[in-house]
Amino acid sequence: MYQSFFGLHHHPFPASPDPSSLVAYGNLSSQLGQLANCLTSGQGIAVLTGPSGSGKTLCVLTLVRDLTDSLVGVCLRTGQFEQPGDLLKALLHGLGRPYTPRDGQDLRLAVSDAIHGLPAQAEGILLSVDEAHLLEWPVLEELRGLTNHDIQGRPLVRLLLAGQCSLDERLADPRMEGLYQRVRAQVRLESLTRGESQDYLRSRLRFAGADPATIMTEEAFELLATVCDGSPRSLNHLANASLQRAAWTVTRPVTRREVLEALTESRRLPLQFSEPATPLNTPDQPREQVLSPSPVTMKQTDDGLCSVEVGAPMETSQDSPGEDVPPSPAETDSVPASVEITEFDIVLPESAPAHEEHERPRPHTGLFARLRNGKSKASRSGDE
User: Fold this and answer.
1) Of 8, 27, 194, 366, which is least surrounded by CB within 10 A?
2) For the chain, what are the domain ranges?
3) What is the DSSP secondary-structure string of 99-121?
4) Over its length of 384 residues, how does the chain's per-residue pLDDT go in tens digits?
5) Using CA atoms, how far apart are residues 113 and 107, in angstroms rounded to an integer?
6) What values do phi and psi take at 226, rounded to 5?
7) How is the beta sheet containing 157-163 ordered, strand by strand?
8) H helices within the chain, ranges in order?
9) Helix-, strand-, coil-residue percentages of the chain, each rounded to 5
10) Residue 146 and residue 90: Cα distance in Å, rounded?
11) Tally of CB atoms within 10 A around 276
């Protein structure tokens, strides 16, 4: 690992979410405050949505950690419950209660006993469900029923639903009207701006015990913020890969070169990255040469017709490349100043009979098009 090479106290970009390393960028602090106020006051259901990799799970774990002084926290990290009974068993397991095979009604009674049998100092249960966009209608309806448990008007189950943006559409389904009307806080995480992305990276490095200026150059921070397109998951992965590559090559600080090399390797993964502002060439590698378009040559034949040749080989001059050589008078006279095109036809190579002797084949130099000059054709007809 690269922690010892860069002198870091711990991993700055862990693969698993760590609530202690949460970076409050933009208006994230106010958004988490809205969710926390809804859950602690017991006014209703809290909903957190955002695109994949935006840090929803980290926010959920942070809320569960900070709000469990007076609430019993139960965090379900998956929403893959096919039946309501699966959800109730997971809740009993989170509360430390036995969940032996029972039918639906027995499970509901066991959950009710567990909720009402909380310690006296506990105000209720903070139930958070991650990946809630995967929940089917019967399971969501079971969650709505859990919020009905109360004591003297004080709700015993505080529900937090977190999932991708499709969760908002699922809750807006007419069948979910009973659940949706109980939502009192609804927050959506947005992608980071480029400035926020750079602040995010610097904050994670400071959290690991390092001075960001000694770990990465400004160009490296800027490139990471550009290609990751505001996704914290992509930022974590690419920054981690860049640090690892720099440690392998004994390079400090991380430069644009290490980020580009890590980006090339990371494109094999299903993560999404934007294109950098410049081509993926390291400073020591020349950029790819831009090919010039195929030349087009126009010539006038002896019979008064005009021949256009596309893709003909360029005649290289023996003079030095920096000198401009004026065209000869013969070359100037061979190209018509202006040609009025009235019709054209494509001339393809004629195939000779099978047993007829023919010339030795020559290399094909391009596609030829013969353009008829209407005025020349008319003048020849008049002379005849």
Assistant:
1) 27
2) 26-188, 192-266, 294-312+365-379
3) --S--HHHHHHHHHHHHHT--TT
4) 799 999 999 899 988 899 988 998 889 999 999 999 999 999 999 999 999 999 999 999 999 999 999 999 999 999 899 999 999 999 999 999 987 777 788 999 999 999 999 988 899 999 999 999 999 999 999 999 999 999 988 999 999 999 999 999 999 999 999 999 999 999 999 999 999 999 999 999 999 999 999 999 999 999 999 999 999 999 999 999 999 999 999 999 999 999 999 999 999 988 889 888 654 444 444 444 444 455 556 566 666 665 555 555 555 445 544 455 555 555 545 444 454 545 545 444 555 555 455 455 454 444 444 444 444 454 555 555
5) 10
6) -75, -50
7) 71-76, 124-129, 157-163, 45-49, 183-188
8) 3-6, 28-41, 56-66, 84-94, 104-116, 137-146, 166-171, 177-180, 194-207, 212-215, 218-227, 232-248, 256-266, 329-334, 374-383
9) 40, 15, 45
10) 14
11) 16
Pick from 17, 65, 62, 21: nearest CA to 209: 21
Amino acid identity of residue 220, one-letter, is A
> Domain 26-188 carries which CATH code?
3.40.50.300
Size of the chain in residues: 384
